[in-house]
Fold this protein.
Amino acid sequence: MDDRARVLLKTLIERYIADGQPVGSRTLSRASGLELSAATIRNVMADLEELGLIVSPHTSAGRIPTPRGYRVFVDTMLTARGDGESQEFEQRFRSELTSVEPQKVIVNAARLLSDLSHFVGVVMSPRRDAAFRHIEFLRLSEQRILVILVDASGDVQNRIIVSGHPYTQAQLTEAANYLNAHCSGLDFEQMSARLRGEVENIRGEIVALMQAAVAAAGQAAAERQEQVVISGQKQLLEVDDLAGDLAGLRRLFDLFEQKSLLLRLLESSQRSEGVRIYIGGDSEVVPYEELSVITSPYEVDGRVVGTLGVIGPTRMAYERMIRIVDITAKLVGNALSQR
């Protein structure tokens, strides 16, 4: 695109985000500041439409942005800037974080993201320290074994595993002694890798028992926390761009209910630096054309431990949403680091 086309595309998208109505050549002529005839503007709009950046809805003479148009707008035309609203965000968030526990910080963050954006706020909780400290086995019957696990934070978890092989209490004690001696301080993935590497040095039936115990312990650790906190799903019912699509809304609420796709998206975003923006389904994890997702990782004591973000329609005030997500990520990290 030349400079003229870029100015017209930027103006069209900004007007559509503000008004929610298709933008015509007359509006662009007034709002762009370019001294162009209506015929010239129509020709440029035809070129933008051919590039897949705008489209004419139904029989309207105006145009609206496509997800590809939003992508160009966000990547090349936005300039982040601070303002008084950013200070308001920060002050409000700090007031919500006084003397609260870490999980309450996460819940408050999701709610504030929703309140400030008027869309859906999502926060991936920090990974808990899942390092293993101590394990004991108790024989309940020939094939039922109680696994008693203590993790690095001192939490005790009990799991019953059913084995196809009958173990004596002496064998169970042997397995527990080995794990306590060789795996203390490792997380459960590291424990599994250690056992695979030591398989030749341990009797086969004991290895199978250890692997079953490690798998059960890892599942117990994952179940102890709610990994994704979501707030404001009902906000989407008030969004004009989505309200008429009942089938689409049903799919969105299924997404929020299952949470697994959201968790995958947030986990992938955790590996990026700074704010990341998915527009109109260009995330393969959450492939909804009508949605945009803005995410940012947050750090505790200099280490990335989670991700948060806003989910809303493709027609959103991207510059404002970026500020909300970016500031919230920094404040959540600060609040959790202090605790």
User: Anything to note?
Assistant: The chain has three domains: 3-76, 84-128+226-338, 132-223.
